[in-house]
Write a structure and sequence with these properties.
Elements: H1 6-23, E1 25-26, E2 29-30, H2 31-55, E3 78-82, H3 85-88, H4 97-105, E4 108-111, H5 136-139, E5 149-153, H6 163-180, E6 185-189, H7 200-215, E7 219-221, H8 243-257
Parallel strand pairs: 3-4, 3-5, 5-6, 6-7
Antiparallel strand pairs: 1-2
Helix pairs in contact: 4-8, 6-7
């Protein structure tokens, strides 16, 4: 501007620079508009806070009264099973009596049964698929945690061994389980046979196992012989149950068990 004082020109230059700065766009919005929005927002927040403080209201979030309280699922009781191939489920195509009984009661199943084993018998590749599978008391060492319930089933594989030795092994197993898991319920299932008539020694084994269970404070579950005279419940090997056979075993166990569950 011709004839303007030098100081005036400097001031106007500064004012012009500031005007250009405020006129710049950021994200499609002029700087002055962004600043104005921020000032308005801060003012609104301050006014709301002052009003809340004045009337004693809290700005904290309050859960609606009709909101459901989150519920954590209860852990399933751990139940361990010791036994032979009948408890393991050989021949059942994935169906096992421990799984069937456990599902009805909401149990977390730990099936430690191994084919070919017993109170005295050990097994190998022909029975359990491993180089060595130990007796029931050895299998019990694989129990992890604190089971609420422990089942022991079997005894067929111990046939042709001395009944007195079977009795001693059963007594040792049940006493050991009772000492290690004093709070657990201990159930002992009578030895099973296939669809043929059981040999005479099976009755003797059943008698000594029942006595050993009673001596340790365990509950002996007498289920009879659900497979006897039922060839349709046995697979082609003539020994192991099929899926329907395992369902029959599960039904027999469930019936004998029901009065004793805590």
């Amino acid at each position: 501007m011709a004839g303007s004082p030098k100081g005036y020109d400097v001031a106007m230059g500064r004012l012009g620079g500031a005007t250009r700065a405020f006129s710049r766009d950021i994200g499609g919005m002029p700087v002055w508009a962004l600043i104005l929005s921020a000032v308005v927002a801060v003012g609104a927040i301050g006014a709301f806070s002052m009003a809340s403080a004045a009337d004693g209201r809290s700005t904290a979030y309050t859960l609606p009264s009709d909101a459901a309280t989150p519920q954590l699922p209860q852990p399933m009781p751990l139940v361990a099973f010791l036994g032979d191939s009948y408890t393991q489920g050989v021949g059942g195509g994935g169906v096992t009596w421990p799984d069937l009984v456990g599902k009805d009661h909401g149990w977390d199943i730990a099936n430690l049964a191994l084919g070919g084993t017993g109170y005295l018998r050990t097994s190998d590749e022909r029975g359990c698929g491993r180089p060595y599978c130990g007796r029931y008391i050895e299998a019990s060492q694989e129990i992890i945690g604190s089971p609420r319930i422990i089942f022991v089933a079997g005894g067929r594989n111990d046939l042709r061994l001395e009944t007195a030795d079977i009795a001693a092994a059963a007594e040792h197993l049940f006493a050991d389980l009772r000492e290690r898991y004093p709070a657990a319920q201990l159930f002992v299932v009578n030895p099973w046979y296939d669809d043929d008539a059981p040999p005479a020694q099976l009755a003797a084994v059943t008698t000594v196992v029942r006595a050993a269970a009673g001596g340790a404070g365990a509950v002996f579950l007498e289920t009879g012989q659900p497979l006897e005279g039922e060839p349709d419940l046995i697979v082609d090997d003539g020994v192991h149950p099929n899926s329907d056979g395992y369902r029959a075993l599960a039904a027999a166990v469930a019936e004998a068990l029901e009065p004793h569950l805590e």
